[in-house]
Structure formats: C-alpha cells, structure tokens
Amino acid sequence: MLSVFCFISAEQVKDELRLELKKNLITRKLKILADQLDLVNMKGCPELETIRKHAVDVTLDPDTAHPRLILSEDRKQVRYGDIKQNLPDNPKRFDIVPYVLGKEGFSSGRFYYEVQVEGKNGWTLGVARESINRKKYIRLKPENGCWTVWLRFKEYKALTDPSVVLSLREKPQKVGVFVDYEKGQVSLYNVEARSHIYSFTGYTFTEKLYPFFYSGATGNSDPQVITPVGVTD
To answer: Cβ distance 191 to 175 under 8 Å?
Structure first.
C-alpha cells in the first residue's frame, strides 16, 4: 500500500514539474515578445514619413467657428475665448459646442496635416463629414459623421461607439491626422514620438471630409496650431 502511495506521489510531482516548466517557457516567450514590441516602439513608426508626403495646406473656416472660438489672422490657430462673440449665424456655424472645421474639404485621395497641442489639457482632432449636425449637441462618433480622438479629463479616447480608452506611452505635443478616402481609413499619430495613436478603418466615405477641431473650454486658453509639415526623403 505504501509503495503505491509513493508511486502516485512521484507521478504528481513529475506532472507539477512539467506544468511549471511549461509555464516558465510561456513566460519567457511572452517576455521575448514584449521586448520585441518595446524595440519596435523605440524605432518609431516608419510609415509616418511616407504618410507625411500627403501633406496638404489646412486653414480654419471662420464661417464654421463657434462664437467662443478666436481664430488667428492667418487662420492657422484657434483658441477658446472668454467672451462669446456676436457673429452672424449661418448654416455652417457650430452653435452648441466650440468646434471649427477646416476650410478645405476632401472627397478623394489621401491627405495629411499636423496640429500642435502642446500645453493643452483638452482637445479633439480628426475629420468630420460635410453634413455633420452643427446646430445640436451630438455624440462624437462615426455614426454621427466624425472620426476623432480626444484628450479630456487627462484621458485619451478614440471616439467610437463605445469609445476606446487609449494608453499612450508619451503625451502627444503634435498630432498628425491622415485620411485615405478610398480605403475608408482615418489615422492619428504622435508626430514627435513617431508613434501611432489610433486608426478608424473599414468605413465607406460618401461626402466631403473636413479637418475637425475642438480647442477646449475655460482654463484651456493655449491655442491649437496647424503647423507646416516637414517631409524627409
């Protein structure tokens, strides 16, 4: 009886050793993959330089700007103002939330632009379709005609439905926005870190798309700045 008990115990020990070795092997493989991922992240985002070759000149459209927003003379900067301006109403203007669109719309091809957000504690960037509702409060999501990422309450989110919380290794100081119209893709990048932030994929665009900006509210007076794109060969 004793010998049988010892035999069973030995087999159990062997099984436990095999299981432990297997776990250790998986752990080692996971560590190797994690190290490889870190290496890739350190090398940055090599496709960004190719994407930047699709840079376009973006300016802000004052006819769409919410009355709280102050645009620079060259229409390359926008910030939230303390006073609501007395501006003429028109069908293009956002009335409820301080949004503004780019002047130029795009209905084909690829385009890319960059926006400096350094110093801001709240922003939203991306693109919106021409028919986006400008007179009512809407949830920012693709079904409502906008493909955007925001920083709000110290949290980065891709505004899908439901939204996706983004864990970014570095805080973006300059954000690049890339659109491939025919492919149905909108991608955002951390320009200085050379890293990918988020991509909306698999959509079918049927209207003009416009650069979309939200510059934060009270206590967030630093401007968003549309910056020139430097492309290296």
So the answer is: yes
